[in-house]
Amino acid sequence: MAVGEYVPNKFIWLLDNVELVGTVYAIASTEDGGHGDDFAVLPDPNYRHLIHYFRGNNPLPWASETEPGVMHLETYPLDFSAINRYERWVPPQKPDGQRFQVQADDGTSRDLQVGDHVRVTGRWVIDHHPEYCSLPAIRIPPESSRCRSRGWLRVGQTHTELHPFDWQDIRLVGSPSPGDATRCLLSLAAPLYEQQYVGNWKWAANEFAGVSGKVFIDDSEPNFHSTVSASITLDAPPLPNLPATSLRRLRWTETVFKLGTGMNLGQIRSVTPRESSIDVQVTIAATGTTDGRPSILGPARDRWVAQLEYAVFWMLAGNEISCITRSSGGGFPPQPGPLIGVGGLFPNGERWWLRLADAVRALQEGHRFFMRVGLGTPVNIVVKGSGTRTTLGTDSPSGRPDPFLDLPACPDPPIIG
Questions:
Q1: What's 137-180 look like in SS3?
Q2: Listed residues 316, 344, 375: the one ending a domain
Q3: Which of 299, 316, 333 is a domain's end point?
Q4: 393 lies in a domain?
């Protein structure tokens, strides 16, 4: 057992703009004697790591021991004396008595309800109320205190919160459509710690011993986590009802929003594509200081933090190309430029569109594209040229215009970046 750093503020900064997706478990109200300023969310599996390392969230210190682990959310802003990194938060605190509103995709809103599946963002912090560990003892019927005694010394729990959070942007989470991308913003920080010596305002013996307000470390029952990990599985949207010959390729993107000073992305994360999903593993190892342990203030100094967003979607295409997209050429009036994309229709009438490079790759991997010339027999599309001149066309004899380039322009193709 060891005594760690002194905690200089009630809240310790971990990360800003942290996303949480889960089910609303409880909502505070003024009728309960509070301000109606907070509610609790049961995280989805991909966000469970945000509370996993805190026994004070599993359950919360004031909750019954039979309740599940949840994330606590509050709206009131923190001033410079309350947290170890001060940055102004917008929007302001929610007015007392005003009910939380949740927004649907169609732009409508209604009162937030227990059981809603929601997406919220906020400031991820560690909150210190170690004296709350004794609250279960006053429940009816009483439950065992979650405090811990070391002789005359008293140890309590920390817990983590989103505090404050954007209470003006609480969104319902629905099922993705086949043409959508599923997304997850993964946030992680280290070190994380679970227990603290109760401050002198509640336990004078800790003050006399010089440990009041310091982190309590127990290596026999690890409660100080220098290395933390998160694992997510991100499923692609459901596939539409397509012909068996249609192209379907799983695609994913990664966007780095935050990476701690001196950290290397390739060393902390791995991505494993599956048939219809990706598995992402992120591990952060905070390095020690002179006493061999990393400082709890590291995340607020942009050390040992990561925020990575992943999107998974399907690249879909039929076999018949019925339109093309060309860049703008020069001259006056402007002449059509090189081919940059192709498109067509699925049997259900939905449009598909591919960038040229994706269409070339699909052909090279064995997918068949064709076009129709008038009402005649389908004509196969082939890869023509090489290198920067690689394009698509038909096997039309040399010197003759390629009918492929006479196809009409695709309506409303995606913006070409």
A1: HHCCCCCCCCCEEECCEEEEEEEEEEEEECCCCCEECCCCCCCC
A2: 316
A3: 316
A4: yes
d(C-alpha 119, C-alpha 397), whole Å: 57
Please report whether residue 119 resides in a domain: yes
| CA-closest candidate to residue 54, choices 122, 156, 202 | 156
Nearest Cα residue to 158 out of 124, 122, 131, 189: 131
What tens digit of pLDDT does each residue of 231-261 get? 999 999 999 888 999 999 999 999 999 999 9
Confidence of residue 287 (pLDDT cuts 50, 70, 90): very high
292 in any annotated domain: yes
Question: Which residues are bridge partners to 20 per DSSP?
Answer: 120
Q: Is residue 412 part of a domain?
A: no
Query: Beta 101-103 vs 71-74: how paired, if at all?
Result: unpaired
351 with 298, same domain: the answer is no
Q: Which two tokens stand for residue 288?
A: 């020690």
Question: CB count, 10 Å around CB of 194?
Answer: 25
- Residue type, position 212, single letter: S
Q: pTM for this structure?
A: 0.89
Q: How many domains does the chain have?
A: 2
